[in-house]
Amino acid sequence: MEYPLLYYKNNLVGMLNLLEVMENHGCYHLVFSSSCTVYGEPNQLPITEEHSIGGNITNVYGKTKYFIEEMLADISHANEKWNIIALRYFNPVGAHPSGLIGEDPTKAFTNIMPFIAQVAIGHKPVLTIFGGDYNTVDGTGVRDYIHVMDLATGHVAALRKLRKQHQRLKAYNLGTGQGVSVLQLVKAFEKVTGTAIPYKIIERREGDITAMFANAELAHQDLGWKAQHTLEEMCTDFWRWQTMNPHGYRAQKEIKMTNGHGH
Ligand SMILES: CC(=O)N[C@H]1[C@@H](OP(=O)(O)OP(=O)(O)OC[C@H]2O[C@@H](n3ccc(=O)[nH]c3=O)[C@H](O)[C@@H]2O)O[C@H](CO)[C@@H](O)[C@@H]1O
């Protein structure tokens, strides 16, 4: 994590300001984007919301999410008007199925799926896999990848819940419940896109967790929500976005302007 202060400033100061403004205006309903990183290195799998949070968090981003959850616990304890849902995202991947909305690949990234796609499209020569000696199905790290469209419906379900029921503060896991290794993800991506992803396995990345996947039953029971999209759809949709926009949003804008019908 190169810029800890930037994360603290953006996430913590931003949240403080938001909560203050909300309180000043009598607005007490909030859906907070939390993260599975609040669990740290899990001591049981799949992870339920009962799992302790805040222990062994390996990066600053995760710490800010944890600190914010603590802040939310304090304000909802102090003032019963608050009605907050914290959604703990597992690993969001994919893109909008139209291919028009996605993660801008020109920005710096460290996440796996954009990296795989950059190798597939030829912008990077080889995927480096961080660690092949984990205690997992094939030695590579295991994660619960979830399609961004499922995350979106999770938010709608959370908003509906806030309208229907006053719970003060409640956290829900948003994941598929399925653990997928890096190599399994690479194979799925190659299969659905018909590309080849050369890779080399290097040493473990500092701070990485061996395996993490959700028990998302609580979201199912309480919010009536369940992830619908398969791993193959996550790959197909991300690949569509990547191939339609190889240079991200910048190229789209430039192309529109040179065609003379940009809005
Ligand atoms: C340490 C870190 O940055 N953690 C963030 C990362 O988690 P997380 O590390 O789970 O997500 P990544 O997409 O970076 O990595 C997923 C898996 O792929 C492996 N991998 C990744 C990139 C690569 O080039 N090669 C490779 O082998 C990793 O070792 C891991 O096993 O993204 C999550 C959101 O999606 C954030 O909530 C986490 O805070």
Automatic annotation (TrEMBL):
Where on the tree of life does the source sit, at the highest rank?
Eukaryota
The Enzyme Commission number assigned here is 5.1.3.7
Q: Which GO terms describe its cellular component?
A: cytosol
Q: Name one Pfam family in it.
A: Epimerase
Q: Which UniProt keywords apply?
A: Carbohydrate metabolism, Galactose metabolism, Isomerase, NAD
Task: Output the InterPro entries linked to this UniProt entry.
Answer: Epimerase_deHydtase, NAD(P)-bd_dom_sf, UDP_G4E
Catalytic activity field: UDP-N-acetyl-alpha-D-glucosamine = UDP-N-acetyl-alpha-D-galactosamine
Keyword NAD listed: yes
What cofactor requirement does the entry state? NAD(+)
One MF annotation (Gene Ontology) recorded for this entry? UDP-N-acetylglucosamine 4-epimerase activity
For the biological process aspect of GO, one term held by this record is: galactose catabolic process via UDP-galactose, Leloir pathway
Locate the NAD-dependent epimerase/dehydratase domain: which residues? 1-175
UniProt protein name = UDP-N-acetylglucosamine 4-epimerase
